[in-house]
Amino acid sequence: MAMTDQEILDGLGEIVDEVAGVPADQVTPDKSFVDDLDIDSLSMVEIAVAAQDKFGVEIPDDELKNLKTVQDVVKYVHNAEVSA
Amino acid sequence: MRLAEGTPGARILAFGGYQPTRVVTNDELAQTVDTTDEWIQSRVGIAERRIAGPDETVADMAVAAGGKALAASGLGPADIDLVIVATCTSEAPIPNVAATVATRLGIVAPGAYDLNAACAGFCYALGTAADAVRAGTSRHTLVIGAEKLSQWVDWTDRSTCIIFADGAGAAVVGPVPAAEADGGPGIGPVVWGSDGAMADKIFIKDRQSFIVQEGQAVFRWATTALHPVAKQACERAGVDPSELAAFVPHQANLRIIEAIARKLAAPQAIVATDIIHSGNTSSASIPLALSAMIERGELGSGSAVLLLGFGAGISYAAQVIKVP
Question: Is the pLDDT of residue A1 over 70?
């Protein structure tokens, strides 16, 4: 069964905490990875790799530049799960 | 027909390293490209790098490193019968660097060739040298990784000019006597591979072009595909990662080094971080880091060290060695 957006958000919070040391409660939908959470392009790759392990959704490098906010990733994972 | 008589194994007798004298700091780069010391240190972990002089060639650096390794081995030029130079940045397609280096070191008429496996070059060359010694086609081989990346870098491209640097490192490889074949110094089996489907991730298009790298793709590959290769090299050598005294990966990017080291799980191992003061010197980075660690007395004789080279091709190679 597909995860709810809240479940994806919680999972993403754990990943961001692990990869970049940003507390999970700061990982809210409207936050920008670069501007608000201080996450750089290499950490985004680590987040993508961890997201693949956790959600089973592959996020290619080409897609990363389009995923600017936390909500963008939640939506991407959600859509990928629905279409899978 | 008679077949060559081999030896039970090969080992490293000595290392040598050479770095150009000119230090280029991050602050110096920040004067010509839009970057900062903080940005560079957080992205790639480099504080400063060494850059060769305008007239200093790959061969010059290879001679300096090779000469040091030869002197440290206690052997003379006459004892060397094979010279392999791993390089991907030489000035000319022909002649190769190895024959010139051999002559300048007084090594007369050895087998001599260059090997291009980019940043994996030293581990490839060490693997082939060990095989040649084991097979009996070489008694003592001089293996050198030497690079002048600065001449292939666009110094206005802030994504690459902060990373690459120059230098050379060398090792003398010789036979393991039968009596010491078990447990003494040696070179473990090489685990190597490549994937030409990723050729477009790091490349220099032609002799008029500069190095291009897709940072995210390389980072993803290096942090996900290489720790199994490292573990396999340990397994083939019969050395558990927990027994490693050091892990010396190619000095590509401090964050890649740390990510692979975490996944390797070798709690006792000193992880080489030579990149901080040397930058990424491609095939020279592993022997340079090793020479420095040995010079500092960090590695006792006989301690097990895992080497892991990886880079353009893409190509990769790993082996466990025991320190001379």
Answer: no
Residue B252 near residue B282, CB atoms below 8 Å: no
Q: Which residues does chain B have within 8 Å of residue A45's beta carbon, measured at their own beta carbons?
A: 216, 219-220, 223
| pLDDT, tens only, B51-109 | 999 999 999 999 999 999 999 999 999 999 999 999 999 999 999 999 999 999 999 99
pLDDT tens digits, B108-122: 999 999 999 999 999
Tell me how many degrees the CA angle B9-B11-B12 measures, rounded to the nearest 5: 165
* ipTM value for the complex: 0.89
According to the 3-state scheme, what is the secondary structure of B265-306? CCCCCEECCCHHHHCECHHHHHHHHHHHHHHCCCCCCCCEEE
Identify the CATH number of the domain in which residue B33 sits: 3.40.47.10
Two structure tokens written together for B126: 């060490």
CB pairs under 8 A between A and B: 25
* Residue from B88, B119, B123, B161 carrying the catalytic annotation: B119
Looking at residue B114, what is its pLDDT?
Answer: 98
In a domain, B186, yes or no: no
Q: Which residues pair with B142 in a beta bridge?
A: B83, B172
Q: Examine the fold and report which residue of B161, B180, B199 is the final residue of a domain before the chain moves on.
A: B180
Q: Which of B42, B215, B224 sits opposite A49 (nearest CB)?
A: B224
Does one domain contain both B37 and B73? yes
Q: How many independent structural domains does chain B possess?
A: 2
Question: Which residue, among A45, A52, A63, would best test binding to B if mutated, counting the most B CBs under 10 Å from its CB?
Answer: A45
User: Does B227 qualify as catalytic in the annotation?
Assistant: no
Query: Which domains does chain A show, CATH number per domain?
Result: 5-83 (1.10.1200.10)
pLDDT at B181: 65
Closest of B46, B51, B57 to residue B91, by C-alpha: B57
- Residues paired with residue B166 on neighbouring β-strands, in sequence order: B148
Q: Residue B163: inside a domain, yes or no? A: yes
B95 with B175, same domain?
Answer: yes
